[in-house]
Amino acid sequence: MNAPEQVIKMYAAREEIYPRETKGRYASLRWVFVWLTQLAFYGTPWLTWNGRQALLFDLASRKFYIFGLVLWPQDFIYLAALLIICAYLLFLATAIAGRVWCGFACPQTVYTEIFLWIERKFEGTRSARMRLAKEGATFNKAWRKGGKHLAWGAVALWTGYTFVGYFTPIKSLAHEALTLSFGPWEWFWVLFYALATYGNAGWLREQVCKYMCPYARFQSSMFDRDTLIITYDAKRGEPRGPRGKGGKGANGSCIDCSMCVQVCPVGIDIRKGLQYECIGCAACVDACNSVMDKIGEPRGLVLYSTDHALAERYTPRQIRQHALRPRVLIYSAILLFIICAVGTALWLRTPLKMDVIRDRGAMGREVENGMIENVYRLQIMNTSEQAHRYRISVSGLSTLELVTDKEVELAGTETRAVPVRLRTAHGDGAKGSNKIAFELKALDDPALQVRENAVFIVPR
Asked: Which domain holds residue 276?
């Protein structure tokens, strides 16, 4: 007799999570980060610097404005270094304090917190939201759900608009928004980023952290027994159970109220140990502490601590001492080295660039009076925001001279191709290629100069 067929589901159907609102130190800290990150995100594009947008990644003109710094495509290495610095900061923070980034500053967490706040304003507390979900098609449900989604959509659209404002000057973008005259790419990115915000923070929520974010999968490689994590003190809490009238009885401090589960935005039970779904938001810590206050027990049944600290009963001072371990010191040393190297490179960076391009159509030719002439094109880039007048000079052969204009003026952040002709007397230099050098120097700032090597061709 054949065994009945079994269906194995590779993906469990999502159970709707209705996080309970909680108050406490970590909840307040989360809202501090919500305000700080959103003030920075929404406000930075409106800042001005030298009469233009302070932070602007102008892809059309291939210039990145970062306050007083202007980066060109040739300076991409600095942006790469910035990403490396951010990555090492994340590694360092994770090694010390676990998923503190995920719990307090990650955009997914921040926007989910904002959208949950809107949801509570329209639909009420956790129990009210659960009742509303089971309610039939009523006017009450329609206006509450509709109002919530309209508010979500407004926040999402403003977020998409602000995102595009980092790549298109936001003030001109505002005029285009009022007249609905966005270009096709502007429409695409505003709506795409708005849809991503609306979908991720409004609908997917914990699914992003569980299934889409790769960080949850490799975070364990940066954890050790001295990493601060959200944990449950099983020695103190077990066996869990409700309190009798006489007090504690035979049970531990945990009264099995499930408040830690109800406030969790990803719906896990922290009492089962560390799980990859935990984002380290510490909502369960605030909830448990409030319960401990009510029943007259000390706080800290659910807490920020380390495996070593729980096993050895470390004091806060001992926890801080164990934080300075080889992994943390190595991350810190690498991070400090990269920051110093990038800072030094930026400090020594000359805001002037020049490329010398030979005219390949005329290698070297004889002109009047037996002079030998070569033609070049100087690609000059003034990467600063101040206008400068530059003098062009050449060296390398005794009679070498520049027969075109010796001075050129460039406005701030301007690039220009300058054709130049060089001549030298017949017999000066060996036949074939001769090494020469172009020098470009600002007349108003002698320290602003650049030198590029080239070759002068003497016909054989």
From this structure: 228-310
